[in-house]
């Protein structure tokens, strides 16, 4: 609720800030040359990752060829790591381009990788207006860090 009410929103772009945060405060799980992979602070499911370019760019068509290749490579790697630690039944992968399309942070492109399990969407989001996440972000991050191959 602190995020929704504006109390927890950082000054500036959170995707530009994330790679420079102290390790103990960072949700970054992997760093490439042009992109990084970070846990979603408000995940749809445990293990919900995002691949972001370091460069502050809003639109997919503005990525360089090299950034496009690394976004794809880190998306594939994220899927492999998530499969190794939690065996999801499937994934939702994608980008929301622009606020009207649902991008919460439209100014900085980010690709979502959301692990899915049969039955993971139940009555709680509809009736209870809440999500039940059976895992703390710090626990998820620790598991991902241990499973992520060294660069």
Name the descriptors:
151 residues; alpha+beta; HIT family, subunit A; five-stranded antiparallel beta sheet; 5 strands; globular
Short characterization:
This protein is an alpha+beta fold.
* Low-pLDDT residue spans: none
Task: Using the alpha-carbon principal axes, give the shape.
Answer: globular
Order of helices and strands: HHEEEHEEHH
Task: Output the CATH class name.
Answer: Alpha Beta
CATH level-four homologous superfamily name: HIT-like
Strand order of the largest sheet: 1-2-3-5-4
Describe the protein.
- The chain has 151 residues and is an alpha+beta fold.
- The protein has a single domain (2-143), classed as HIT family, subunit A, CATH 3.30.428.10.
- Helices cover 31% and strands 17% of the residues.
- It has 5 helices and 5 strands.
- A 5-stranded antiparallel β-sheet has the order 1-2-3-5-4.
- A hairpin with a 3-residue loop joins strand 1 and strand 2 (35-39).
- The longest helix is centred in the middle third of the chain and has 22 residues, at 65-86.
- The chain is globular and about 35 Å long.
- The N and C termini lie far apart (36 Å).
